[in-house]
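G., before I forget:
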Amino acid sequence: MPLKFTVVSESKNTRARLGRLETPHGVIQTPVFMPVGTQATVKTAAPRELEDLGVEIILSNTYHLYLRPGSDVVAEAGGLHKFMNWNRPILTDSGGFQVFSLGPLRTISEEGVHFRSHLDGSKHFISPEKSMQIQMDLGADIAMAFDECAPYPADRDYVKKSKDLTTRWAKRCQTAHTRSDQALFGIVQGGMYKDLRKESALEIMELDFPGYGIGGLSVGEPKDMMYEVLDDLVPIMPRDKPRYLMGVGSPDCLVEAVLRGVDMFDCVWPTRLARHGMVITRQGNMAIRNLPFARDFTPIEEECSCYACQNFSRAYIRHLLKAGEVLGIRLTTIHNIAFLTRLMQEVREAIAADRLLEYSRDFLSVFGTEK
Amino acid sequence: MPLKFTVVSESKNTRARLGRLETPHGVIQTPVFMPVGTQATVKTAAPRELEDLGVEIILSNTYHLYLRPGSDVVAEAGGLHKFMNWNRPILTDSGGFQVFSLGPLRTISEEGVHFRSHLDGSKHFISPEKSMQIQMDLGADIAMAFDECAPYPADRDYVKKSKDLTTRWAKRCQTAHTRSDQALFGIVQGGMYKDLRKESALEIMELDFPGYGIGGLSVGEPKDMMYEVLDDLVPIMPRDKPRYLMGVGSPDCLVEAVLRGVDMFDCVWPTRLARHGMVITRQGNMAIRNLPFARDFTPIEEECSCYACQNFSRAYIRHLLKAGEVLGIRLTTIHNIAFLTRLMQEVREAIAADRLLEYSRDFLSVFGTEK
């Protein structure tokens, strides 16, 4: 098996657990947040900067790499790790979510999805088998099954059909996936319908994947609804497999989901926020372009050890952002990744010391207000 | 004196010399190329990356910093070094060149220059005294006199008046400049007219500055014309003061000007070129976005020790540039600065070994063809 997951310790009064995920490119400590490197680069950051920040795994996007530079080019480079010079673990998504997001540019059938490239309008087709082939070419440590992610809101009938299709596709993915140094995760769907979620979980777990994605959440529903789905779903998921909540990355959601037993997360939000000049702090998000920071010569966060906070002032970063200088979004990106990496580190320490509930209460007293 | 310049050795059969320039923020070995950090940042690069590349001094632009964030903000931060976290030497230009480049947005009088900001159209006035005040606020190691840079072509009468004005302004700058930990360089003008160049040199040298800029070259004239001006001008400049050829940075011009006795250079060209996806190599400039590099998994230059060449392939950098990813222009910028820094290092070694003529001949056999 390319993957070994060990539950190191469990929180007594929550569902949180501390885990250790061994992959061909190294060990990941869970709960973990994975920064997103859509096009084989975490936007604005260099691999050595991510290593310095303690990032243990990144996510990259199959749809984007398939279109550009082409998975054949990445394979010829020796795989995604070599291509982008990132020697730690990588997870690739299946391409499904991006393809479905194309709206009128795509049509779904039992066989797969026909779509037109958002880059040049060219016609393409991705099936479960094709997604597996692309992901095997990319060579990430963890690949994801090709699923259909139902939108929110969606009626029960649509979500049921979508969930059934996802199960049939999961089987085809499992058959098509043959790369022995890569783990394939199944994905649970079922929208906001508890019975469909349960059906999906049982069907997907029946296939016995080495890990499970929880898809179709954080797609526009209220946060409380997401937490309710997790409250119902996680207890029927196996204890000894990593649970990955896809597309979630705001600080409050991370902590709430860890409390509910989730191990892995990814989201473009913290890095996208950074490129819009917003930095995450213990006092909430801060629009550093604003005038009050023009003569603020303190760092973004006094207690943060990232390169941005150790070397530059809010006033300087504001100047860079106002002047459209790349270094500005580099520094906000570094800080936001540092913030989430440190948050997950603290969460792990709190689980180990069995004081996660207190930690969460303190933390959410600021971030929980953003619901 | 805030500056000490020592000629370490001289080339026997050229005018080149190896120098050592001591400043309040450290020693610079000359001949030296100064990357340009227009808005208090060398575009796309972080200070630690420039340090890693062996950059010993950068240039920053008074006009831009005066408008944004304002020299008062920089002064309040503790000066430009602290503001941008660059602890090695800095040279600031006078703002003159940028202001004159505004064309219809400015009017020149004996007193100074009235102009409108290119950012918001607001009205401003910079005089020699104001330029000194701004540069003293910025606190670079080397400030430049406020001069008028005549365009090319320009008739003799215009250039003479402009040169005379530059001399009068140089005196006013010298009077107004009072910062003891900052050196002020005079600037020789005179366009392409040899007699005016000589007059300007004698007038400016009469004022006894600790270093001299050569302005008004590389403004559109043929390269041979620039070399002829240097051939005439440099021999009448003092041996014991640094000579700074402003705005020059293509590899062939650097080598040709070093042969003619120039010690310092700056230019936006190598970093601007990088942002357009062009990398400088021993084989000439290379448009790395081009199709032939799509599956070229070799580095930009096999023998280059920069972060880009040590870690990434042409194919990957091409992918980043095609995909509009910031890391692409970060890597091309790093490489181009590395190329020029290494070139100047080699030039210094060649002077020390008194084999600069041979070195130049070999080097210019590639780059000299671009005239």
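The longest strand of chain A covers residues 4-10. Residues 249 and 356 of chain A are 18 Å apart (CA to CA).

More on Monday.
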